[in-house]
Fold:
Amino acid sequence: MSGKLIIALDFPSAAQAIHFVKSVSPEQCKLKVGFELFVAAGPDLVKQLVDQGFDVFLDLKFHDIPNTVASACKRAAELGVWMMNVHASGGDNMMRAAKQALRDIQSPAKLIAVTVLTSMDQAQLNRINCQLTPREQVNHLAHLTQSSSLDGVVCSAQEARMLRSLMGDDFLLVTPGIRPAGVNQGDQSRVMTPAEAHAAGVNYIVVGRPITQAENPLAVIRQINEEMS
Ligand code: C5P
Structure:
């Protein structure tokens, strides 16, 4: 099975996603299905990717009452996904219920949490009446995630080194905002290269447009996998 690279399949339709996936293999990468593609293509596409042997990260960031989130996680696990996520700000009761739901159906799916969205800066946190700095809030929610027995967090590359030293080696760190050296940053402002993320202790990196919009996606995948090996 593939290593540390998760490709974000941010396509508007199943047809476009399937066309791209034909050019890659489960040995080269894992795949992430987020809101856009899931709303457009639904669970059938997720199942299709799983049946093709891909590890699929279902990135739907569940955030609701514990019972609803637990049920949604069960349904996701039944699709055979490799990893899924919830919002840590949904609280520890919610996270524990989600984890327990996966245990009840003996699912090996990994469950991780989003701490603070990278789009939330200090001003945005203050406006939802959170007086901590983004870094303090990330730290707080990462500990809540760990004490709720989840497998890890989605974090920005800038937080990876701090979280690796605070949370220990068994806690998964999954990091978007990665740009191979020499590639356009696009709308991601604070980026890291795959090699830097690897050095910071990240377990998996999420890369979208630098691969999906490249003239030669396979060459970029090869370069990233070499940097991370
Ligand atoms: O195209 P790009 O490499 O920027 O895609 C990154 C992926 O990671 C997208 O699917 C985006 O939604 C997701 N993501 C992110 N930043 C976060 C959380 C998720 O870029 N904080």
